[in-house]
């Protein structure tokens, strides 16, 4: 029989599994605590479950097997982890430890939702590599649990407190596993992570965005915009040919109606492509009436994208200033870890090329 993954299971699923094994309900709560609160990676560590139950469980299930393959640390402190999955695939996640003011200290983890990505955005390392498969909820949440384990080993008392679905993959194309991960991370018997501390980033898969809106979840929504008109957006993001800006903006408005939440728009600034005065005006038109914030990111260099010029700090600041003058909320999002293949998908690409 195929082994079930405990990290993918919520309390209801554990309860029915244990019921099948003839065990009382309190055992399911114990099991849930081991898996999602204490985040242990081995059944053998769950010492209060009793031998008989552990033997039964060993026949049926395991926590997701995850192996740290490589870790890179950037000059700016950003850390990138490459994990090897049970089937030999690789995924990446990126840890940002924000320090400074005590109230602002936090560990934010950028996590992957798929191995590769089918969306084919031309500036993106993951997009260039194609799609392999969806991750399970257990594989998504294991990124948090494994990094928490590493933090603890290093004596960092602060576990991951924020997650952003900005690693590899398009989270809305793996929506059920992403929603399950969100609910498991939020669980009061697990990590108790506030939903507002989670960000879902999408390239704009409209029907799935509408589905997410109907969940009325308090997650932060980030939409990868990158260009202010259909012609330019379609040239770098194939998804725009299927769901052009008019549909995407209507979906964003619907999302805002349903949730009342401000939306973030990601805009990778590319010299001479999307940084001109007319683009500021087009953005102003496009975003009219939406409560939103623009995050301007100097495009990160990836392989085979010499055509995408990376603007310098002054150019980025000037563009942000022009947006603000036009009445838009905008700020610079420093791309972190550029020197360690910071953009997700790059490290995996490099390791796959080496092997
Ligand atoms: N698939 C989702 C989430 C993962 S990508 C999405 O596209 O939103 C996370 C963010 O990194 C997205 O905003 C994406 O557009 C951006 N990104 C990808 N490659 C980049 C690059 N080379 N430079 C800057 N941002 C990039
Ligand atoms: Fe996929 Fe996002 Fe990369 Fe586009 S930017 S290819 S949607 S991961």
Please summarize what this structure is.
This protein has helices at residues 11-20, 25-37, 51-60, 125-129, 137-153, 175-186, 206-214, 230-236, 239-242, 245-259, 277-286, 313-325, 346-354; strands at 4-5, 61-62, 66-73, 79-85, 90-98, 106-110, 114-116, 131-134, 162-165, 198-202, 220-224, 263-269, 292-298, 330-332. By secondary structure, the protein is an alpha/beta fold. Strands 3-4-5-6-9-10-11-12-13-14 form a 10-stranded mixed beta sheet, covered by helices on one side. Strands 1-2 form a two-stranded parallel sheet. It has a two-stranded antiparallel ribbon with strand order 7-8.
Question: Notable features of this structure?
Answer:
single chain; 355 residues; alpha/beta; DNA polymerase, domain 1; TIM Barrel; 3 domains; 10-stranded mixed sheet; two-stranded parallel ribbon; 13 helices; binds S-adenosyl-L-homocysteine; binds iron/sulfur cluster
Written overview of the protein:
α6 (175-186) links the parallel β9 and β10 (198-202). The protein has three domains: 4-62, DNA polymerase, domain 1 (Orthogonal Bundle), CATH 1.10.150; 64-202, TIM Barrel (Alpha-Beta Barrel), CATH 3.20.20; 216-333, Aldolase class I (TIM Barrel). Helix content is 38%, strand content 20%. The chain has 13 helices and 14 strands. It has a ten-stranded mixed β-sheet with strand order 3-4-5-6-9-10-11-12-13-14, with helices on one face. The chain has a two-stranded parallel ribbon with strand order 1-2. The protein starts with a strand and ends with a helix. The chain binds S-adenosyl-L-homocysteine and iron/sulfur cluster. S-adenosyl-L-homocysteine (SAH) binds next to β10 and β12.
